[in-house]
Amino acid sequence: MEKSTIALIIMAITILLFVTEMIPLAVTAMGASLAMAITGCIKYGDAVSGFSAPVTHMIAGMLVVGDAVFETGLAKRIGDWLQSSMFAKNEKALLTAVVFICLLMSAFLSNSATIATFIPIVAVIAAASHGKIQGKHIVIVAGMAAAFGGGATLVGSTAQLVGQAIMTKSGVKPMEIFTLSKLMLPLCVVFMGYVWLAYPWIKKVLSDMEETIPASQQEEVKEVVEWKVWLSGIVIVLCITGFVLEVWNVAIIALTAATILIATNCIGYKKAMRNLDWNTLMIIGASQGFALGLDKSGAGKIIATTLIKWCGGPEASALVLLAVIVIVANVLTNFMSNTALVAMLLPIVIPMANQLGVSAETFCIGVIIASNTSISTPIATPAVTQTLVCGYRYNDFVKIGGPINIIIAILTVIGLPIVYGL
Fold it and tell me: Pairing with 98, which of 52, 150, 223, 352 sits 20 to 30 Å away (CA)?
């Protein structure tokens, strides 16, 4: 049996497992990579080479940095400021402020941790407002904002980190820290504008929903050590600066930052290791072997050729193909992990773009952005899913997130060739 056929079979099984999540995503990614090696599609060393890639080390370091920001109390300090600010006196003003802060924080920190911080903060503000502010109008949109913000930079979400690893392995120009920001920044502005204009609609959709946001979620207040708060803030600013100026390799910058925060006990070593998202690290490391198998076996080229043929052959419009890819990614991410989707689609779209002689980077970025801006269902991303604790219904997400999801998808297709070229 041809290696390309074997790789296609492995891919089909992998996609099924990714979509259904019958087994953990990390196990699926690792199994796919090992299957490629065992069947001879790649060398055994290729199957685990992703674990030594700089991007894998970078995300490990940034996970520790992000955790320290919450551990030292810096994130809570931001929430406390919001609670005592003028924004807490008006529901629409509070909604706007929370959305903006969630967009900003999740661009550099865990979007899941960001929304987990703001749910109890909003609950406390709502409880103290004597009915003037209803948390249900804010939390659902804050979850969507955290998902959006996570797609604004290279370090904001795991989807782009998996994508970066695959792009690097496949010879595609890797993204820089703010490559995604070029398009995501205006998309985030559009999202904020939608929230502002759709505020009456949000209230109408949720009018018959009982206010069930539990203020008891507020974590027990820990003793805050002022210098640790400042140090964690300074370190993350220096990280961002280092990434932008390319002072060192991204992995060295992130691991140095993590080392400083652990050495100064801004976060304990054992807690830092315990809190590391090993699932994400496994997916990032293993998915590179899977992608390499599709490439080296020729399976990716076969899929790309077939899709191009369906769309018009050699005369196929690159823009039409890009639109199809973005729409497919956007729809699928509403029902499956965005990390899994990126790992699944990038090995297909890269050879497709190469065959058409267009920018593979633009196609990859299209998939990544689409995977981060799918917010039409409560299972679209973990940040959105977390808001279910407040009692929202499935259709609440469809009615509130659906319209902006469609608008953003259209703007993504229009913006990609303008911003990144085609």
Answer: 223
Q: How far is residue 237's CA from residue 226's CA, in Å, rounded to a whole number?
A: 17
The answer to whether the predicted template modeling score (pTM) of the entire model surpasses 0.90 is no
Sign of CA dihedral 57, 10, 37, 171: negative
Cα gap 67→408, rounded to integer Å: 30
Q: Could you read off the pLDDT of 2-44 as tens digits, one per residue?
A: 888 888 888 788 877 766 767 877 788 888 889 988 988 888 8
**Beta-carbon neighbour count of residue 128 at 10 Å?**
12
Q: For the chain, what is the radius of gyration of the CA atoms?
A: 22
What is the Cα–Cα distance from 244 to 303, expressed in whole angstroms?
36
Question: 3-state DSSP call for residue 146?
Answer: helix
**Burial letters 387-405, b for 16+ CB under 10 A, else e:** bbebbbeeebbbbbbeebb
Instruction: Give strand ranges (E) for 142-294.
Output: none
Q: Do 326 and 409 form a contact (C-beta atoms < 8 A)?
A: yes
